[in-house]
Amino acid sequence: MAKKTKDDTPIGPTGRPYQGFPIPAPLKAHGPARIIALCNQKGGVGKTTTSINLAAAFAEYGRKVLAVDFDPQGALSAGLGIPTHEIPTVYDLLLDTKRDVHEAIVHTHVEGLDLIPANIDLSAAEVHLVNEVARETILSRVLRQVAGEYDVILIDCQPSLGLLTVNALTAAHGVLIPLECEFFALRGVALLIETIDKVRDRLNPSITLDGLLATMYDARTLHSREVLERVVEAFGDDVLETVIGRTVKFPDASVSGVPITEFAPEHPAAQAYLRLARELVARGAVA
Ligand SMILES: Nc1ncnc2c1ncn2[C@@H]1O[C@H](COP(=O)(O)OP(=O)(O)OP(=O)(O)O)[C@@H](O)[C@H]1O
Ligand SMILES: [Mg+2]
Q: For the region Disordered, what residue ranges are annotated (predicted)?
C-alpha cells in the first residue's frame, strides 16, 4: 500500500482509498437473518474458507450466525471441526421440509456460530429432488423456520451451478462471489452472473450481488495485481475493498478445524476476514 491520495489516505489493493470500516455496533435484538450464498462454480476459489472465517468474524462482532454446509464434500463442517457421520444433516432437512431444523443444527465451539452440516449423502439430493414440486425453493423453506433466530446465514455452495446452487440462490438475499487472484479468475463469472439474473427473474426477485471478494492475493506478484486490476475494471465497486491475501495459515487452520480468527487471531488473514465482516456491515449487507 505504497500509493496515497492527495489527503494522504493510502490506496488499497483495489485501487480505491483504503477505508477503516467501523466496528459494528452491538445488536439489541437478533434476527431476522440476512441470508448470503457464497457461490462460484469454479472449484478451490475460497468459498469454504471464506464461509468459515467470515462466519467466525461476524460471531466475534456479536452477530448470531448460522453457517450452512451445502457441499457434499462437507468441507465447511470439517473446517469447523464437526464430524458428520450419523448425525442429521442438511440433506435430511431437504428430504423432509416438515422436519424441525433444530434437529440438524450443531453449536460449534465458536460462540454465536452454529452449523447445519453436510456429508456425502447430499450428493444424492439433486437426483432425489428433481421431481419435487417447487424443487428450487426447498432450502428456502427449510431456512425460513430458523431465520428469525439469526442475524446472518451463510450458505457455502458446492462448485457447480446445479439444482443445489439454484436452491441456495433462491433462499438467499445476497450473493458473495469469491474469486481467486489467478489467471482464469473471471472465466465463468459471466455464466454465474447470468444464473443469478435468471434466478432473480424467475424465483427470487430481490436477490442482490453483495460483492466479489478477491482471495489468495499476493501483492508481491505482478500477476496477482494484474488479475485484481482486471476484476476491478470489469466489476467496479462490486469488488469488495477487502482483499484476502494468500497464506499457508488457511490450510493449517482448516486441518485443526478452527477458524483462522481463533487459530491465529493476530495474523493478517484473520484481520482481513474481520475487516470483510465490517465492510459488509458498512455496506448494509448484514445488520
Ligand atoms: N487466502 C488463502 N491463501 C492460501 N490458501 C488458501 C486461501 N484461501 C483458501 N486457501 C486454500 O485453498 C484451498 C481451496 O479453498 P476452499 O476450500 O476455501 O475453496 P472452495 O472454493 O470452497 O473449494 P471447492 O470449490 O472445492 O468447494 C484450500 O486448501 C484452502 O485451505
Ligand atoms: Mg468449498
A: 1-22
